[in-house]
Each structure stands twice: as structure tokens, then as C-alpha cells.
């Protein structure tokens, strides 16, 4: 039983209805009589009326000034110019307005808060603009079903959008990514385990190198595979070579985020396992990895999302093909980003529309992968959702029954 | 299982050792079983494989580049033209172009990413925080070809007017000078402003922002609560607290994150290829049409190159590789040495 007892220091009259005798200072306030807003308490959050007026006034002023001045400030024109001018005037007017009632540190604080908000808003707006623009421009080709069921082998560049499609690029991406996942996921996860679970002297240099690898230019990864696989070993440019180049780009991401996730596994779980006599590999396999499973899945998905979008390595190691190619060891195999890149470099409007549609498909794929990563990895290591918790409970119930049977039979 | 006899009088005795004390310390190393040996060797092998992979990138690029480098010698660094067939090629122009684009990108991205990181950690209401983090991470996941398309077909149109304004009012600053633009003419042909290093740099900046932002956010979120509250208790405003506590604390992370972004900007390929029109002279006028970068040189000349030309491109790739590696190592040193980075190193 918890009763909320509030004391109102500012209320001079005592309304101690609970016990009339004796000096009682604490009482349960009557909700009907308690004032709705306690006077004299400063509001700590939200926007006060003053602030709203300041903001609105400054915005209105900025808008009218830039409407008036626009075109006067020499050749500044266009949407971006208008927005920038309005924003500059807004900041100035806003600062002046607050300075009427506030001290200098407060003025600086408020103006800086607006600037910080602007930075974040700019980033988000740009992201939204990129996504919406590509989807809108791609819509023309996206609505035709043949875009998903045909390839470009029988379609000329100026033929209408009702012919030709990116089936070959979709399948090519799937094949190349399968290969890249087969290479980079086992190697990457093992390396992440190596970094966290073994106290090796090698750990430090490996971590440094992996950090350096995250910034390895994708074109250099492509060049490297081309220099070794094609020039030195004498194999063909193919989907397999592209898989290898892409896996070089995915490796550091999987290792780094896997490393971070594994480090979040509580140390006492490892110690408990070791105290029960389990060797290190058993601890890792049965305790550490299952605990961090969702995080590790996230790191793999993030790596895949990065790999899917890589254009330059595929350009160098596989090259563009207009038709479907299912054999990863022979002949060029095209991926979605490469197809988008090649399409938009064509002067034909139809090809550019196809390029945008391809980019839109790629972006939707990345968005789906990314959302999946957030959903899977949205909770910290070791925390289970309801279904997982139920499964775990059932399993330990089974264990209890098994133990009891053993004890009875003994 | 013997029950304790409660009737017995329990006394504590100090055991008297009958043996001589051991002359040597007991070996504390636990014996590894077979499984652990395999585990150790297997995981170490993966670590070695990653090290070997990076070494191989350097070695094989060097091997392939040797032919071109031995023929061109030192002029590889000083020549700006790229005509391997006539043995007249060098990376002076493309390196200058790469650095120009990367610097534009970082100069634009730094305030944007720092502001975003500070907004997320200090200003935004807690319930929006994870959404904002997800959106910024999503920015990093959007493929560069998509940014390239956006930059080429939408953003360029917006920026040209800004370029024109800057060149008119600030054309007296050498880097903003545009040859061919007439500041007093009513209408200057807009083609002198298209496909410039400035536009390419702006688009690359958008790709750099999430990388810088995530490093800085990480650092700002580690600011000790005590110092933060101390600043507030002394009457500081929020910005005062950020200036007095967060920024000094996160200095190493800010520098490291910026350099990490610089490394990424140096290597960006596809967006730059899409936007820029290649030229082969050293050009620091960022607003002017045309520019170049090492990665776009490789991507554009690669298909027509053969034999010696390929070797020359490999040499250019090697130069880019060394440059980004250098920038990255400096960045990781800054991050590791900073006060806030000390805890992230396991």
C-alpha cells in the first residue's frame, strides 16, 4: 500500500481532516480543492509563451525580410538561397528579440540551441529528400511489372519503359551477396570472437588494422582483387571476384560491431561458466554467443547493408552485363548499384528513369535490411523478448523433470 | 555424506605441515584441453587472416604498380597529366583534386555532424533520441550511388545559384575565384558552375556526416555526469556546460571523428564520378566546373586501360591506399589518446 502524500509548503491554512487532534503537518490533499497549477513553480520543460512569440515573430520577420530583399542581394536566387537568407535573418532577429529580456549567456544559449537543432534537422531533411526524390523519379519505371521480370539483353536504350528490366541485376546482387556473406560472416564473427574472448597479444594490432580497414576505399578493394585474382592467378572477371571484393568491404563492419556487441556480454556470465568447469570454447559457444545473438545478427545485417550498396568493387571485378548470368565463376555479373550507375550515365531519358528505379529498388532493400537490424538488435545483450523468455522457461522446466527422474532412478 | 556430530566439541586447529614447504611456486597455468587449443588456433588464424589481408592489399598493389613506377620515377608525383601510353602521367592533379573535394566535404560536414551529435546527446528529448540515432545511422547505410543520383539531378540545381552568389561576392578570395564568370553580368552561363569540386564535396559531406556524428556522439555520451551536473550547479546554461565540459572532454573524439570522415571522403568513388567532370590540371578554385579524384580516375580509365596503363592505375590506387591509411592511423591515435577514448580500449 503506497499512498501519495504531498506537502504543500506554500499553503498557509491547515486542512487536517484526517486527525483533528494534534499538530499534523502531512495530509492527503483533496483533489477537488487543490489548485490545478501550483503558483510560483518554474516550468522546466516545454516552450513558454514568451519563447513561442519570440520564435514566431522572428520567423515571420525573417520571411518578410527575405521576400522583400530576395533578388536585391545580387545574383542570389533559387530555393537554397532563399532558405539560407531567411535562416540568417531569423537568427539575427531572434537573438535581438531575446536580448530584450535576457542576459547575454542566455541569449547565446538559446541561439546555440537553435543552431544545434538546425544541424540535426538539416541531416534528417537531407535524408528524407534523398529517399523521396529517388522514389519519385523512379516511380515511372517501378510501376511496370516487366521491370522486375525482364532483363536488358533484348531492350535498346531508347525503348519505352514497358520493355526491359533489372531481373538480372536483382539476381546478380543476390548471387554476389551470397558469396560475400559466405566469405565475410564466418571470418568476421570468428575474428570478433578472437578480439574479445582471447587475451592474445595479437588483439591490439588486429583491432588497429580493422579500424584502418573501415576506411579502405572501395575502389582499392576492387583493384586489389583485380590485381590478384585476375592478373596474377589468371581467373576471369566474374561474380565470384565481385563477392570477394565486396566481402573485403563488409569484413571490418562485421568485426567492429561484432566486437562491440560481444564486449557487452556481462563478464559474470563468462565467470559462472568457467566456474562450472567449462573450457573457453564451450563458454563462448554456449554462453557468450547465444547471449549476444541478436547483436551479432545486427552486425551481420549492417555489413550486408553496406555490401549491397557497393558499386566500385563490382565495377572493377565483374563489370556490366545486359543479360542474366547465373554462373558466378564466369562472365560479368551485374549488381543493383552498378546497374543504376551504368543506366544513369546514358543520355537517354528512359535509361535515366530505369537508373532511378534501380536505385529506388536498392534503397528499399537497404531500408528493409536496416529496419530488420534495428528490430533484431533493438535490445541489449542477454535481454529476451517474451517468446524467447517462454522458450527458456520451458527448457529449464524440462531440465528439472530430467534431473528429478535421474535422482529418483538413482 | 556424513552428518556433523553436534555433540563433539569443535575446536579450531592450525594444521601442522609435516612436509617441507615447496621450494618452487606452483605453476598457475591451467592445462588447455584439445578443444581449447583448436579454439585458440582457429580464432587466432582469423585474426592473422585479417592482418594478412591488409598486408596483401599493400603488397599486391605495389607489385602491380612497380612497372609503372619504375618507368616514371619521381615524376609520378609531380606530373598532372594522365597519358600512360605516352609515358607522361602522374598523380599531382588527381591528388590535389581528391584533397580539395575531401576538404570541402569535411569543412561542411564538421559543423553539421558536431551539431547533430550535440543535439542528440544534450538537447533532444530522451524519447526521440534513439529515433534520431537510427536516422543518422540510416544515412550511413544509404548507398553512395543513391547520394550521387540525388546530387547530380536535384542538389546541383540548388547549389549553382549559391555558387554564383559566393563567386560574385567572395570571388576576390583565391579559392572562390571562377574564371569565365562575370560578376557584373546579369546572367552568367550556369555551366561554369556545374560539376565542380564544391558540389561533389557537398554530396560527399552528406556521406561523411553520419560517420563523424557517430564517433562524436559516442564521446559526448561518455561525459562524466558529475562534471556535467557540476557545471549546471554553478549556474551554467546548457551551452555554457557544453563549452566548459562536453567539448573539452570530447576533443580527442572530435578530432579523431573528423579525420575518420576525412579518410572516408578521400576514398569516395561513385558519387564523385557521377558529379564531377574530369580535368587534369591542379585546380583549387572549388566553384569552377571540373575537378578530379584518384578514385574517379581509376573508375573512368579502368575499362580502356591495359598492361602498362593498368599498372599506372594500380600506382594511383596505391597512393590513395597509403593516404587513407595514414589519415586513419592518425585518427585512431587521437581517439585512443583522448581522455574519453581511454575507456573504449579494452
Oligomer: heterodimer
Poorly predicted segments of chain A: 1-19
**Would you tell me which CATH topology of chain B applies?**
MetI-like fold
CATH superfamily of chain B: MetI-like
CATH architecture grouping of the largest domain in chain A: Orthogonal Bundle
Characteristic key phrases:
heterodimer; A: 410 residues; mainly alpha; MetI-like fold; disordered N terminus; B: 346 residues; two-stranded antiparallel sheet; 2 strands
Structure commentary:
With 410 residues, chain A is an all-alpha fold. Chain A contains 15 helices and no strands. Chain A folds into 2 domains: 49-140, no CATH class; 167-383, Orthogonal Bundle (MetI-like fold), CATH 1.10.3720.10. In chain A, helix 3 crosses helix 14 (349-376), helix 7 (218-232) crosses helix 8 (239-263) and helix 11 packs antiparallel against helix 14 (349-376). Chain A is flat and about 80 Å long. Chain B is mainly α and 346 residues long. Chain B has helices at 34-72, 75-78, 92-123, 126-141, 144-170, 197-220, 225-233, 238-249, 251-267, 270-275, 294-301, 308-337; strands at residues 82-83, 88-89. In chain B, strands 1-2 form a two-stranded antiparallel sheet. In chain B, strand 1 (82-83) and strand 2 (88-89) form a beta hairpin. The chains are: A mainly alpha (410), B mainly alpha (346). At the A-B interface, helix 2, helix 3, helix 5, helix 6 and helix 7 of A face helix 1, helix 3, helix 4, helix 5 and helix 6 of B.
